[in-house]
Amino acid sequence: MASNYRDLGLRYITPPSVHSRKLPLDGIEAVSSASGFQEKCSGPVCYGAHETIYGPLWGAFSGNSLLYSGFPGGDAQMQTRMSKALRPLAGAPDVLFYRDDAACARKLDDTLSSWISGRPYPAILYGTPFRLAVWQAMSFIPRGAVTSYQALGESVGYHGCARAIGQAVGSNPLSLFLPCHRVIRSDGQVANYGWGDEIKTRILSEEAGRYRVAV
């Protein structure tokens, strides 16, 4: 049975209206064209898995810039989801994918350390303008807090579009770092997480214990 956000010690907030596409962390570069994504990611792309305090986490990096992160449901499933998120890079002449768990572990540790402490971390975020707007709005949900799909949509000017907002949230390529886990159902239930409700509850419980949001 799904948990309620109140039972986890979380606070519900209404995210602020978003009038700019600038993400709050300076290290993230947002691009909405496939060619722009390819240009920023030319060269080798390293991917791999690493055990973290939140569970096993996959990451893909161009240099030190995070391109993708997700919690595995098996290597085949993870590679399928990663390939879908990074589809514009498939077949690009200057991009070579290779697996190196040790190298990715170091990069994920560095990215996690920066993210947990609130420092900028390098990342390249690719998506449609609509999805970038939704992901930007998610990034303003602080640790220890949650919001609903409806409220998230209203913050970017999309009223009554909870389904479309849910699809955008679910397609987030930087799971954990762009906090789609902080978006919950309107009834307060912690559910509908693409990586499983158990992982979503684990992350939110850790954040509730570490952070407190002022009234």
Task: Note down, in words, how this protein is organized.
- This protein is of the alpha/beta class.
- The chain folds into two domains: 3-19 and 129-210, Winged helix-like DNA-binding domain superfamily/Winged helix DNA-binding domain (Arc Repressor Mutant, subunit A), CATH 1.10.10.10; 33-124, Double Stranded RNA Binding Domain.
- It contains seven helices and eleven strands.
- The protein has helices at 34-40, 75-85, 101-117, 129-138, 149-155, 162-170, 197-210, and strands spanning 3-4, 11-12, 28-31, 43-52, 55-62, 65-70, 95-99, 123-126, 145-148, 183-184, 189-190.
- The strands form four sheets. It has a four-stranded mixed sheet. It has a three-stranded parallel sheet with strand order 2-9-10.
- It is globular, with a radius of gyration of 17 Å.
Which structural class fits the helix and strand makeup?
alpha/beta
Give me the CATH fold name of the largest domain.
Answer: Arc Repressor Mutant, subunit A
Largest sheet: 4 strands, mixed
Radius of gyration: 17 Å
Q: Strand tally, please?
A: 11
| Low-confidence residue ranges | none
CATH architecture of the largest domain: Orthogonal Bundle
Summed over residues and divided by their number, the pLDDT gives a mean of: 88
Strands ordered across the widest β-sheet: 6-5-4-7
What is the CATH level 1 assignment of the largest domain?
Mainly Alpha
Total helix count?
Answer: 7
How would you name the CATH homologous superfamily of the largest domain? Winged helix-like DNA-binding domain superfamily/Winged helix DNA-binding domain
Note the run of SSEs as H and E. Answer: EEEHEEEHEHEHEHHEEH
Distance between the termini: 29 Å
Overall tally of structural domains: 2
Strand residue percentage: 15-25%
Shape: globular
Helix content: 25-40%
